[in-house]
Amino acid sequence: MKEQYNVLFLCTGNSARSIMAEAILNRAGGGRFRAFSAGSHPQGKVNPYALALLDKFNYDLSNLRSKSWAEFAKPGAPNLDFVFTVCDNAAGEACPLWPGQPITAHWGIPDPAAAQGSAAEIALAFKDAYRMLNRRIELFLALPLDKIDRLVLTTRLKEIGREQGATEKAQDVDV
User: Fold this and answer.
1) Cβ atoms 16, 126 nearer than 8 A
2) Which of 6, 3, 1, 15 is nearest to 129 (CA)?
């Protein structure tokens, strides 16, 4: 069994969904996983609603930052075991070559940063995205990674991406 798995969560802006997923897995993974996040066109700052929600749940915010996926394709970048896209735009883009030949899956979640309405309605969109990401990560953590082959694992990860609340694109991904 591998000592630690490296996981990259991708989104276009790297300001909300991928940031939340990074924080969730780093805490829930209990040292067995090291999570990162990045974007193809990073916003350069983390969405304040994402930060407020993570702070409310007592996550460490000190290392969270919006960054380019190019950081993870350079020499010296960590070898990645898994790469999950959490937005449909990132899933449709041509990704760089990742070190480590990671297993990839699309876990499309509606964009809470696109929510409109009152502050309470926007905060609710972030809570919904957090809940969906947390559920997918729980299912991921429950997989016996050392006991199933790569093909079966890839299929299971794609199935996780179709969980409740998945975007239409995530539901259409072939297994």
Assistant:
1) yes
2) 15
pLDDT digits (tens, 9 = 90+) for 44-53: 999 999 999 9
Alpha-carbon distances, residue 106 vs 9, 103, 120, 150 (angstroms): 10, 11, 29, 16
Please write the tens of the pLDDT for every residue from 24-66: 999 999 999 999 999 999 999 999 999 999 999 999 999 999 9
If you write DSSP's letter for every residue of 13-59 in order, what string do you get? S-SSHHHHHHHHHHHHTTTSEEEEEEESS--SS--HHHHHHHHHTT-
Active-site amino acid positions: 11, 87, 95
State how far the Cα of 141 lies from the Cα of 10, in Å rounded to an integer.
18
Q: Which two tokens stand for residue 51?
A: 């930060």
CA-to-CA distance for 15 and 44, rounded, in angstroms? 8
